[in-house]
Amino acid sequence: MASFTLRPHDRSEFDSLIGGIASQFPGARIEAAHNDTWASYRVDVSCEDPRASALRDWLNGHHADCPRT
């Protein structure tokens, strides 16, 4: 299982993360929160095996500079 909390830098990256994960990993669980006034963005995502390694690879390839925990 892969589980991440991502902190996108801006609304564009926030939207890109959600759209990309939803289309590439339809079985992933996504919870997202944003506050445009404070420029605060958070995306929590978890994905069960066997797609977990593919999610890690996709994030590294498309959003490598996005802070995550």
Automatic annotation (TrEMBL):
It comes from the Bacteria. This is Uncharacterized protein.
